[in-house]
From TrEMBL:
InterPro entries: HR_Repair_Mediator (IPR052093), P-loop_NTPase (IPR027417), RecA_ATP-bd (IPR020588). The lineage of its organism: Eukaryota, Fungi, Dikarya, Ascomycota, Pezizomycotina. The keyword rRNA-binding does not apply. This is RecA family profile 1 domain-containing protein. GO terms for molecular function: ATP binding; ATP-dependent DNA damage sensor activity; crossover junction DNA endonuclease activity; four-way junction DNA binding. Residues 31-225 form the RecA family profile domain. The keyword ATP-binding applies. CDD domains: RecA-like.
Amino acid sequence: MAANGSPPPQSSHRLPTVSASQALQSLNARGARFVPTGLEQLDKLLAPPSLPGHHVAGGYARGKVAEVYGPPGAGKTSLLLQAASNALHEGQHVYWIDAACAPLVPQRLHDMLAAPRDTPSEVTLDALRNRFHHLAVPTLAHLLALFVRPPAGFPQPSTSLVVIDSLSTPIDNAYPRNTDDRAKNKTDQSKWAAGRRYAVINDMIATFTKFAALHDIALVITCQTITRIRGASRALLAPAVTGIEWENGVSTRLLLFRDWVPQQARAQDKIEADRLQKTRFAGLVKLNGVALTDEGGVGNVVPFAIDIHGLCDINITTDDTATSLVLPIQARPPKRTFDEVDQDAAEEPNSDEVYGWIEDDGVATEGLLVDDVPNTVHVDIQGGSTAEGRSTKLLRTSTV
């Protein structure tokens, strides 16, 4: 014991004790808490709440996982290349993990790095490119091994952004979606593949969140979209990677899409008019773990354009400021009411009704009609004849 001159017992805490001053110095040495997106309007939406008179710059939060999804050509790669350029100019390291194994065009990154900035930097382009690390993962196993058992030096101590481009590609290659998933009688192999897919996704998002929090980096993932149909409503574009654990692990989600600008939008000059024709939209669907819209919604929408030097904001001025950028699409009503469907369900149709081979049913027999016999011609069928004034339909026979 300490009273007998023995050394005091060691603390049982797992983490070493750090003073408040050391923690504050370490926090300041890490740099900004957000990685700017390159769009001022979007950064304002991503900024945390602050006191009046205190401006806090927003962006991709460090220590958390963000997701950017959208159809091909929506601008996902360009959006994250702009964020990577901003992080490099701040003196940070950036890792670009290409899950689709598509060649990254160096000229696109070079143009963004060489673009004029508000605060000129004395750092050369070669020094900026040396802090940009491009990795290719051909399979899902390579991607998991990179984060579960990271090699020495990954990531660098001054890394603020890690981008995983097209994560849905290796997942779909390892566990493809097929027609057996929608069948009523699923095979044991299809059931195992579906369950294994979600198990891998759950472990993956847990690894990503731990990696981002441990290294205090902003981990941003891009995914493709799939089409989802809900009853009689319109088809929706949904993220290709889903799951309960995935939803809980993703802190912020952005949706990129292309659409026509409102008719009230006016261009100030020719350059602005050209940008309006190439307008893209970024919708903030989820922020800090809180969903901002229902399924199928786009949330708070920010218009932007992509030019040779990167991203640029678009200020759409309209006569009516309350006009929304994206008008909601009304769901189409069902062809028949549910009462009519219930009444028809109790009646067993005959073979003619099933195949549509009834008189004057031109829709069901589309492609089978060859010609209409004039009403002046009598066609003998099994010794009889058709009545005058009535047209007879001849069907094309097919052999298998």
